[in-house]
Write a structure and sequence with these properties.
The protein is 32% helix and 24% strand. It is an alpha+beta fold. The chain has a domain of 132 residues: D-amino Acid Aminotransferase, Chain A, domain 1, CATH 3.30.470.20. Strands 8, 9, 12, 13, 14, 15, 16 and 17 form an eight-stranded antiparallel beta sheet that branches.
């Protein structure tokens, strides 16, 4: 499987994110294609990470299958053959879409990142350490960095086109979307995280926090969309190495972050684009992290046909 920086399919492209290219398939469906682009510290690297796009798509597909009967979702298929049957124009592009494309129901997306925090880490810990708050709301005193939050906290954020998302309160979500929608989004996000945290823990991975997106489909239903509990949308920790009271090594792009931290401390990178070139060893180590995350969560190696 060759790496992909960007795609060019014979469909109307309606969006391009840091990782995914989005194509319209008629009026009611979209094709999400995960490239092998990778970003860190909100900067997209020039290099691609082998198999990354396939890992993101296939982990999401695996989760969507686990979630049948739990919450409705947008996935129609992540199988290249089935996608081509539905979209014959992609017949000549099978090698490009294999493993990395997902055909989905089209929705009107809610402009909220529905974050569930099961552990106190990242930006949440930074705010708490300074003020005992999260998004301005008080948390109990004496919590530890990386400590388990019981119950998990629903911590919504605004969706940012560039830069960091901004944590907001549940009250703000109610003001923007209404009480009923806010309640539904939180309930569905908690249901997905509860199932995902249990399954992942049984496989030796802690999902410290994760973010979900939801949209309303043509029938008016609120459904789960985008990616689900992947190394890009979640903070994964190895359960056997977990030690509360300190930062935890992240089970995804940690080799990339470590390298960029060294470059920044050495004064060779200012944290802005363009990023420094990545050594082959960093690219390889990062690819292996993604593949290992897939293996540990699903219990199988990722093999592409």
């Amino acid at each position: 499987m060759t790496t992909m920086l960007a795609s060019d399919l014979p469909l109307p492209r309606i969006g391009r994110g840091k990782v995914r290219d989005i194509y319209a398939v008629g009026d009611d469906r979209v094709l999400l294609l995960a490239t092998d682009r990778i970003s860190a510290f909100d900067v997209v690297m020039a290099e691609t990470i082998p198999m990354k796009g396939a890992v993101l798509t296939q982990i999401s597909a695996w989760w969507f299958n686990q979630l049948e009967g739990v919450v409705p979702h947008h996935m129609i298929s992540a199988d290249a053959g089935a996608i081509i049957k539905e979209v014959p124009a992609l017949q000549a592009h099978r090698a490009e879409i294999a493993g990395r494309a997902m055909l989905c129901r089209r929705t009107t997306v809610f402009p909220i990142e529905c974050v569930i925090r099961g552990y106190l880490s990242g930006s949440a810990w930074k705010e708490y350490a300074g003020s005992d708050t999260l998004a301005g709301e008080k948390l109990p005193p004496g919590l530890l960095e990386s400590g388990k939050l019981e119950p998990a906290i629903f911590s919504p954020a605004t969706k940012a086109e560039s830069g960091h998302d901004e944590n907001i309160t549940v009250a703000t979500v109610r003001e923007r979307l209404g009480d009923e929608v806010a309640y539904t989004l939180e309930s569905m996000a908690r249901a997905v995280y509860t199932l995902g945290e249990k399954i992942s823990r049984d496989q030796g991975i802690i999902i410290a926090d994760t973010k979900f997106e939801f949209g309303r489909d043509s029938d008016g239903r609120i459904i789960l969309i985008d990616e689900v509990m992947t190394p890009d949308s979640s903070r994964f920790w190895a359960a056997d190495a977990y030690k509360p009271g300190q930062p935890q090594p992240s089970f995804d792009k940690q080799p990339l972050r470590d390298y960029l931290d060294v470059e920044r401390r050495a004064g060779r990178w200012n944290g802005e684009a363009p990023p420094p070139p990545l050594p082959a060893s960093v690219v390889d180590a990062t690819s292996k992290r993604y593949l290992e995350a897939y293996r540990r969560i699903t219990g199988a190696d990722l093999t592409m046909i």
